[in-house]
Write a structure and sequence with these properties.
Strand order of the largest sheet: 1-2-3-8-4-5-6-7
Strand content: 15-25%
Structural class: alpha+beta
Number of strands: 8
Length: 224
């Protein structure tokens, strides 16, 4: 029984930690995306597309997975994310397709753009290669704002903690009820045992008195 209780507690702690990690990660990604910043998680980066230059391959509001990759492995046709050196968007993250290699870098172009980018993407400015989308985050981002996400980061853990507390209190109450029942059963058993002893002693006394009365009657009859 104790093993099952320990197992339940371990599962509850693990589930709560996993839920908090998932919520925290999603909020981190969403806030970074809304602010136009990359969300780095290990060897990958999550980015939010903010322009339509890659339509129809990538849409505004898409959250994409960009994997860090050696620039030597990049080929013509790959979609890459990089820090732009174009004066108009200098330092901002851009995601375009490689159309050809150049000395020390790559020539890129957006799928929706008629011409190539005017500035070469140098290898040290490349963040990584596009590998896929996260559709759930797009759905979440369709109605989310940074303020709402911060509120969500507070409300959901609080709600999860409240549910955990309710479950814990209910469990403790059930355990207390079981303990009360156990104590009551033990008290009843003690009363039964006491009554049994009293009845046994009472019967012994009756038998003793009955024996004495019989001896007295016999003595009286003999004297007559």
């Amino acid at each position: 029984m104790r093993f099952l209780n320990y197992l339940k507690k371990a599962f509850t702690i693990f589930f709560s930690a996993a839920l908090a990690a998932i919520i925290g990660t999603n909020v981190y990604i969403m806030v970074c995306g809304i602010r136009g910043k990359p969300a780095f998680i290990g060897n990958v980066c999550i980015l939010r597309i903010s322009t339509g230059s890659m339509e129809p391959s990538l849409h505004v509001g898409d959250f994409i997975i960009v994997k860090k990759n050696l620039t030597d492995n990049l080929q013509t046709g790959d979609i890459i994310s990089f820090y732009s050196e174009d004066k108009e968007i200098y330092g901002k993250i851009n995601t375009h397709r490689i159309v050809k290699k150049a000395s020390g870098g790559f020539v890129t172009r957006g799928d929706a753009n008629p011409t190539e980018d005017s500035v070469i993407v140098h290898e040290d400015k490349v963040i990584g290669k596009y590998t896929g989308k996260i559709r759930f985050l797009r759905w979440l981002g369709s109605f989310a704002s940074s303020r709402k996400l911060l509120m969500l980061a507070v409300i959901l853990p609080t709600l999860a903690l409240s549910v955990y507390e309710v479950v814990t209190i209910t469990k403790i109450k059930n355990e207390c009820d079981e303990e009360k029942k156990k104590i009551l059963r033990e008290a009843i058993d003690r009363e039964k045992e006491l009554l049994y002893k009293n009845n046994y002693q009472f019967s012994e006394v009756n038998e003793l008195e009955s024996g004495k009365n019989n001896e007295k009657e016999n003595a009286d009859s003999n004297s007559i």
